[in-house]
Design a protein that fits this description.
344 residues; mainly alpha; 62% helix; 5% strand; globular
């Protein structure tokens, strides 16, 4: 790719690319439809029935898949930059560059929520049933890109809810697609990176901030006269005993997150402030996925009720269960549940 390139038209089908070093090269012109591959794109909707609403259904799902592709690109760039900084001394995060990737992911999810709105507002149950049988057993459950997205975040196969009534749902995928999913699951996910980041921060600054966190907790507990069986006091006791259950994080990782959330607001040390921001942004990403699943579940319930899904799952029942269990950064909420007012 050339930077600061000047273009000079020399004939109807060629441009001269003049580089900063004065050298030039010829490159073919490209039209709008060629650049976007519009002929191929607009021929990619192939309904299996004459039903008018089937084309609309295809277009919406193809839009979802295109946005999944872009989200995967943004998360890959986010992961690569984060891995690079953690491999360097100090592991300082280039926060502005990292968050730019997540800003775009946030905006894409918000746009996709509007796609659901269009479907919910304009597709009735009777409309869908006119072509539903013709597209079985195709199912969103088989979306390779959505699986890759979940795996890139950190939702491994061990954490998934597996539909009891469609144990062979992924068998329809090609061997190449299954290998892609397996390869992604074997890579360092964003959840893995967050754990590594928390350990790095604990060694660099978190452990130094922990004693004052404990002192602040002791003052707050005494001022509020909290008994040992108070929920917050009980959680703190288990944390200090390093026996807090229900988390994938180690005690140090949890303490590191707690310190960052407690002391990482404006004016704090950069490592605490950056870690706090990353925790909250990754939690927001989890919320986007939960909102996606909620909207999908509600839509399926409206148009299918309690029918079995086209891929053989329990339909709405399966989708509803994923809202609760398919979370990746729920440990951030566990750290939040240990917070208390610091101005006591």
């Amino acid at each position: 790719m050339f930077v600061n390139v000047k273009k000079k038209k020399i004939q109807s089908t060629l441009f001269v690319m003049v580089r900063p070093d004065g050298k030039s090269s010829e490159t073919p012109m490209v039209r709008y439809d060629e650049y976007l591959r519009l002929p191929q794109l607009l021929q990619a909707q192939q309904p299996r029935t004459p039903c008018h609403d089937e084309t609309f259904f295809i277009v919406v799902h193809q839009c979802f898949e295109l946005w999944f592709k872009q989200i995967l690109l943004e998360l890959e760039a986010f992961r690569t930059a984060w891995q690079t900084t953690l491999s360097q001394d100090g592991g300082e995060v280039p926060l502005t560059r990292l968050l730019r990737r997540l800003d775009r992911v946030d905006a894409i999810f918000e746009l996709m929520f509007h796609h659901f709105h269009v479907v919910d507002k304009t597709l009735e149950a009777t409309d869908f049933l006119r072509f539903r049988d013709a597209i079985a057993p195709a199912s969103g459950f088989q979306s390779v890109q959505f699986r890759l997205l979940e795996a890139r975040l950190g939702l491994g196969e061990a954490k998934r809810v597996h539909p009891a009534r469609c144990p062979r749902a992924l068998d329809v995928l090609s061997a190449q697609d299954r290998r892609r999913i397996d390869a992604e699951c074997a890579r360092e996910s964003l959840a893995d990176l967050l754990k590594r980041h928390l350990r790095t921060m604990w060694a660099a600054s978190g452990c130094h901030a922990w004693p004052r966190t404990v002192e602040a907790w002791t003052r707050y507990r005494q001022a509020q006269a909290l008994s040992e069986d108070h929920p917050l006091a009980s959680r703190w006791t288990l944390l200090c005993q390093q026996s807090l259950a229900g988390t994938d994080w180690s005690c140090e990782e949890l303490k590191s997150a707690l310190v960052a959330l407690a002391w990482g607001e404006d004016g704090a040390a950069a490592s605490l402030s950056h870690t706090r921001t990353l925790l909250l942004r990754l939690q927001r990403l989890d919320a986007h996925l939960s909102e996606w699943r909620t909207r999908h579940s509600r839509l399926v319930y409206r148009v299918l009720g309690h029918k079995t899904g086209t891929g053989g799952s329990a339909g709405h029942g399966y989708l509803h269960s994923t809202i609760k269990y398919h979370t990746v950064f729920s440990d951030v909420a566990l750290a939040t549940s240990l917070l208390f007012p610091l101005n006591t």
